[in-house]
Amino acid sequence: MTITYPLLQTIDSPEDLRRLNRSQLAPLAHELRAYLLDSVAKTGGHLSSNLGTVELTVALHYVLNTPYDRIVWDVGHQTYPHKILTGRRDRMHSLRQLGGLSGFPRRDESEFDTFGTAHSSTSISAALGMALASRLKGEDRHAVAVIGDGAMTAGMAFEALNNAGVADCNLLVILNDNDMSISPPVGALNRHLAKLLSGQFYAAAKNASKTVLKGAPPLWELAKRFEESAKGMVKPITLFEKFGFNYVGPIDGHDVDTLVSVLENIKHLKGPQFLHVVTKKGQGYKMAEADPVAYHGPGKFDPAVGLAKSSAPAKPTFTEVFGNWLCDMGAADSRLVAITPAMREGSGMVEFEKLFPKRFFDVGIAEQHAVTFGAGLACEGLKPVVAIYSTFLQRGYDQLVHDVAIQNLPVVFALDRAGLVGADGATHAGAYDIAFIRCIPNMSLACPSDENECRQLLSTAYAQDTPVVVRYPRGAGVGVTALRTLDTLPFGKGEIRRTGRKVVLLAFGTLLYPALQAAEKLDATVVNMRWVKPLDTELLLQVAANHDALVTIEDGCIMGGAGSAVLEALAAARLAKPVLQLGLPDQFVEHGDPVKLMVMLGLDGEGIEASVRARFESFFTLV
Questions:
Q1: Catalytic residue at 367?
Q2: Catalytic-role residue among 33, 344, 395, 417
Q3: Is 281 one of the catalytic residues?
């Protein structure tokens, strides 16, 4: 059966949307949700969050004069409806694929993407900057930040609120309250929001009024009129008013007609405004409503069937290896405490929380706090393990230096999503952690090459009395079984994995395996370096003395990375040898299939071989 979208097919820009009658907006939202579900099912991508923002997106583009008026979407993974309505409907088949649409807003993709977002809690700061710029330039434009309740737990959001409340500008902050971040939201703020007329209470009261009062038509009509009024006028004394905002809400975020009415009213108000909108993740697709976490970022699936379990057992991911290690080490040492900045599922910590709930701490989307909180725990003799994505640790860099490294505290950082991550693109690619960690005194950094070595190096890191980072990529490795032991490896020591001649390949992390493939064709020596810091200089100088050239291979940025550490060590030893550095170039790598990206960058086996032959052509002769 072919699905048709008679209204949606007429919308190539928000100008087309604004030509519709208000009575057509609800049917359009229905079509948009159906198109979105069908599209994401074919490409994979973020689903639950986008299903929840359909009506809000329609209402914003209907009321505002976009792109002249600015909308900044926090995190940005919920902007698929926005992309569809802003001229990119026919390109949704390319979503998150190499050369295709980004899964997040990008300024170079569309003029409607006013600010690039992919990490949380940046929208209010950016929209405030736009609002003040408009005032300074004498422009009468609106600036809107759409932020979720999970993102409101981050300190940056409150810094922006604190600034905006005293700024003389027209800024609208929309709190998209769906009572659900990627992991269940935590903290005092979330409890405060729940006490307002939000989420389940609002829906339950609304349903109760329908049931009780429909039998008495005059009362029912009165209640309906009161509800319409209350949706835009209920005004509790809130935290946000204390910041200087005019608070409106909460209102039903799936009632497009009410959203339009309220936004039209707010549009004429001066000063900072705060609109509280209640939505439901997965809205309109029962399977996503029932399990919004599972449908947060699914791969391709059949909407009629839902997410199907694969019959073939999948190779364990590095995240799963970490999760198993965490449980095993936690059972062996009661001092172990685990910390996550709102990425319990993504970091593989669900089972640990079940086993050791009192030793598990989800601090919300607050990476800076997570790092310093771990430092405080370490001061009192506990052994904190902070599980954090590579790009998220960037947000806690000052704390890493000031609170952990300077005090030389034994905090283990399990750094997930190191290297390229594929479809999420440059905003989530762990390209810089080697460079920004290895320059910090007291810090150590390990790069496991496979699943079993990852587990061993985690145990090695845990055994130290100093801060240690273990970085590992997203997804599965080559399939080496991770033994359920707590064995350690020699600290700061690498190993020779293949002995060859003339050229030595120094591999850091999982690129050991394509290096081994290339070495078979090159008859090269291969060293599994394991550690960027401390660098195994004894082994390095040994192989450097016995070979004519060296090649460093890493899935991080070349500038300042592991290859730079090798060059520094050779220079310190006054050993001059030609060195080829292979890794991520000095540019942001686009989104796309990780395998294709590695081929494109020459970091697969054939690419490594070709680069070595091209650089050291005189070393190789044709047979």
A1: yes
A2: 395
A3: yes
